[in-house]
Amino acid sequence: MSSPVVLAAVLLYFAFVSLVLGLIMLPSWQDRAADLLARVRRRPPPPPAAPRPPNVLQAALDAEPLSPRLGLLALLTAAVVAAGPITTLMLHEPPAETAPAPAATAGVAPAALADAAAPRAVPTPTLWMREPLPPPAGTSTDIDRDWARLQPQFRHRLLTLLDIARERHGYEVVLLEGYRSPARQAQLAALGPATTLATPERSRHQAGLAADLAFVREGRLLLSERDPWTLQAYRHLGEIATTLGLQWGGEWSSLRDLGHVEWRGPARPAEPPAAVPVLASAR
């Protein structure tokens, strides 16, 4: 049994079934019940019933004490009626309480965790982050994924974006690249305008105000816009980003970059350079 309350309920049910069977099968119980009901209503008991025609079964029921055979029959009937509920209650177990899965915070800088604990503009019940899988072959190894080098105001919105994307669509979004050094930006600029339009010291990545994001699905890192699932996921991500005041690269007309988000609000650079020109809107 799961609790004393259940045991008491079963016993009460068994007693009720036995009482009903006794009233049905035993005339003496019927007479006593009628007498008790008459006393409650303060009415005289009804006159005795007319003699019934002789009957073997009726004579056995009227006999005192009750014959062992009928007593055994009554007990077996009550046991059969009560067996179903008793078996159900004995086999029933309350559902085990499952504790919520711990937040996956491996790979997140302490500053990012502290910032995520601050009040948010949008409720974010779960903080989850982890480092992405290794970049595809041919990608530079000097990519910076240090969350602490992102501008705090931007980092706050970025964590909120990732939380909402997971809660609303089930996406596992990871940081592909955050802060970008001048040397890294120069390397990308040398690849031509198909890669970036921002020269060194003119990218918001260098101020910690931009990030490139990717998705992890079934153990694979997804960032190709040619994949229909990834394309739709980036569009959902862009819709959420704009509601948080972020700029989404998928809305650019010059060089569309679906995985890019940035913040153009006032902020101080994460790593103040000697001279910071006006930041470009391009990646």
Question: How is this fold's topology laid out?
Answer:
Blueprint: H1 4-25, H2 27-41, H3 56-62, H4 68-91, H5 110-116, H6 152-169, E1 173-177, H7 182-189, E2 210-217, E3 220-222, H8 228-243, E4 247-248, E5 260-262
Antiparallel strand pairs: 1-2, 2-3, 2-5, 4-5
Provide tags for this entry.
7% strand; single chain; Peptidase M15C family protein; 8 helices; membrane; Muramoyl-pentapeptide Carboxypeptidase, domain 2; alpha+beta; peptidase activity; transmembrane; disordered C terminus; 2 domains; 283 residues
Q: In this structure, how is the largest beta sheet organized? A: 5 strands, antiparallel
Average pLDDT taken over every residue? 70
Order of helices and strands: HHHHHHEHEEHEE
Estimate nothing, just give the exact number of structural domains: 2
Pfam families: Peptidase_M15_4 (PF13539)
Transmembrane segments: 6-26
InterPro entries: Peptidase_M15C, Zn_M74/Hedgehog-like
Keywords: Membrane, Transmembrane, Transmembrane helix
